[in-house]
Fold this sequence. Notes:
TolA/TonB C-terminal domain; 23 strands; 4-stranded mixed beta sheet; 5-stranded mixed beta sheet; alpha+beta
Amino acid sequence: MSWQTSVxxxxxxxxxxxxxxxxxxxxxxxxxxxxxxxxxxxxxQVWLAALLASLVLPIVAPILPAWHSRTLxxxxxxxxxxxxxxxxxxxxxxxxxxxxxxxxxAKQPASxxxxxxxxxxxxxxxxxxxxGAGFAHMARVRARSKRLTxxxxxRDVTKIARTLRISRAIHxxxxxxxxxxxxxxxxxxxxxxxxxxxREWPDDRRRIVLCHELAHVARHDCAAQLLGELVRAxxxxxxxxxxxxYRLRRESERACxxxxxxxGIEPRDYADDLLAIARMLDTRSNGWVPALAMARSTDFERRxxxxxxxxxxxxxxxxxxxxxxxxAALLLLLPLAAVRLGAQNTxxxxxxxxxxxxxxxxxxxxxxxxxxxxxxxNMTASGADGRFEISGLPGGEYELQVxxxxxxxxxxxxxxxxxxxxRSLDVNLxxxxxxxxxxxxxxxxxxxxxxxxxxxxxxxxxxxxxKYPAAAKSQGIQGTVVLRASIAKDGxxxxxxxxxxxxxxxxxxxxxxxxxxxYRPVLLNGQPIAVETEISVVYSLRS
Length: 543
């Protein structure tokens, strides 16, 4: 696989997963809004499930079988403007491609996939550096703090931890700063930081603070917040990722407030102590610090209002609710991970040379690579030197067909392509036997076939405009390419054969564009049938 192909594949993979993550975040927002009357613990679980799914998404996507949808493909073509609807144009159609500008091409700008990857890497690196600075800050705080091992402190922590069913050892620290905000952090070994002024607090206030911070430990909020920060570093350009992390932190604080109130603390007493702590301590919110502070200034008013509201649901998130939310996230994650954009995982290349009868180089031969599993056809035409190349093929099993007027169709099956592989095959065509060549050619829809019953003529549904080859423009090459097309029952183009002496550059452009056209199926007595038609593609340099 070339470096350019690798960069493009990585850029497409990034864009695809970003779009899927956006759907996950939007779905989480919708569910959280629907649960606005339920407990904060349940809403926290919703945001946590969405963030975890967005992190797992790029990992499971390459593992799952790809899902290709004709409907989605047509929608993408419509949105990007690569297709145009017809208002009843007949199936025997002409398309004029005008090219006016014949000036030398300007210097090409930098490849957008490379620029995109560089910007994303830079943004993610800055986000991770910012988060790493938070870890360094907490390490300095830990180094300057004194661990509390007195019997009174250990007894208080042990009693509350037993109530919250915490089996892990808890390390309690006292900061040298008397106005330091109470914090909880740590994954394997949970740590709680109290200001030095906490020694002068009443027992009730000290119990409230410990209840709140230990609730973070019981709920594994430190791990959840670390997960959120990692997701935000990956999807730093997505506003919904920032919203998800913000809501995750907010709901965790609300859930811990509910845990304190469920422990028997009066709401008014809790609100008074929280306000007193906010007045005397440093409540500046450092979002880059990977710790959970009790009284951050952000969203403070909402928390006070919620804890004083007697009708607020303060229940935790039960195991049943967690299972339901996790299952819902999984049911949304798997289909999203299976969906593929057309350009993803398309890294294999198949090339070769077509030789006609007698060993002469065969130009204008139509080459079709059929993806057996997905039933997707990739078409091109051989050039003046007989060479052809089809790139951007996903790994898998293929069937090769090569067609040229006056020659028998070449058919090769069981061609296996691995991702990143470049494979070549030379094709030798043979002449059509004399008895077959003498047979009358098949008629086309344009010649008005006479059959019993009603026939509804096929109409173009979408077209992909051919691109005028730059080499042909620079050489002033014009002309018409006449294609004999086989239209399948579902309206897709099954095969294309160049039926006139066209320039190889123009022929290749016409075949590659028309192979993506879509037709409304031809109906015979209400049933779709396969038909043949002729398509003329005109290349003109006139304005």
